[in-house]
Amino acid sequence: MDAKKLGMAVGLTSILALAACGDGGDTAAGDDSNGESVDASDLREITGIDGGAGIMAATETAIDTYGLDLGLQVSSGAAMTEALGNAIANEEAIVVTGWTPHWKFGAYDLKYLDDPEGVYGGEESIHTFTREGLAEDAPEANAVLDNFYWTEDDMNAVMVDIQEGMDPEEAAANWVDENADLVSEWTDGVDQVNGESVSLAYVSWDSEIASTNVVKTVLESVGYDVELSSMESAFMWTAIAEGEQDAMVAGWLPATHEAYYEDYKDQIVDLGVNFEGAKIGLVVPTYMEDVNSIEDLK
Asked: Would you give the DSSP letter of residue 139?
């Protein structure tokens, strides 16, 4: 099955899963809130995100590799963090698909589980990709996208504001105002345009909501009319490859989006890394003291 068809299938699965779980909180069993260490004996499933994400495929592999008697719940980034928050509030056992950067590591005491088999790979980078021909059609936008690069502290500042209730566009605008020196590096040598349109695709992970809205704000500051489109990973890559969207700053490599990159690498333009030090894996609250490795989930 190609990536586009896979994305359609997992998209339907995500909708059905969200409808079934309702408030997103019924994802972990157990009621051990007496202050003792919480183990994994009551776990029935791993709480995941959208089915098209590479971390979900890696988690299916981890379940097989480690012989885990656990299901994998397809949901969304928002539903996953809601379930995590609910479990922590009741000090229940829970394991989720996790990635860094993400605001949840600042909000809760969490830990990655050791992965001795290396299923989730090592450090990842986030890349900027464009459709073929964007450099000729919109050279000023392409230059900004090519220059875009920031750090975990930068991204966290935007994510925290959004998590605390600020609109993503407002959070992005505030960050741009407060980081004029860095933004000036992204726009160095870029001429003003007059309302030309540029479209950005992104997957609705907190990190990509932050980065895409920041790039949107900067492109608008040089005169572009920017349209954002949120979609699952498979659709995002397909849209760039088929020229339906102009660019994305949300390509996780080498592992998370490996399958999509292999499918489309000859139809897209890689402008390089915009964020270094990303990571994926399985995450649990630190109060699960006896669970430190994926092997402990058996």
From this structure: H
**Closest by alpha carbon to 87, among 28, 41, 40, 44?**
28
Cα separation of 237 and 247, whole Å? 10
Helix ranges (DSSP H) in the chain? 3-21, 54-65, 77-89, 104-107, 134-137, 139-147, 152-163, 168-178, 180-186, 206-221, 233-241, 258-264
Answer whether 102's CB lies under 8 Å from 207's CB. Answer: yes
Q: What are phi and psi of 72, to 5 degrees?
A: -125, 115
- And the tokens for 132? 């073929």
Domains and CATH numbers, the chain: 3-122+280-297 (3.40.190.100), 125-278 (3.10.105.10)
* Residue 9, pLDDT above cutoff 60: no
Over residues 16-45, the pLDDT tens digits come to 333 333 333 333 333 444 445 687 788 999
Of the candidates 76, 40, 74, 77, the one whose C-alpha atom is nearest the C-alpha of residue 57 is 74
Determine if the peptide bond prior to 101 is cis (ω within 30°): yes
Dihedral angle sign, alpha carbons of residues 75, 53, 111, 166: negative
Structure tokens at 79: 């539903």
| SS3 annotation, 177-193 | HHCHHHHHHHCCCCCCC
Query: What pTM, to 2 d.p., does this model score?
Result: 0.74
Q: Residues with Cβ < 8 Å from 159, sequence gap 6 or more?
A: 101, 102, 103, 206, 207, 209, 210
Query: Which residue has 């950067």 as its token pair?
Result: 101
Instruction: Output the six-digit token pair for 171.
Output: 């959070």
Structure tokens, 289: 């003291």
Among candidate residues 26, 24, 29, the one with its CA nearest the CA of residue 41: 29
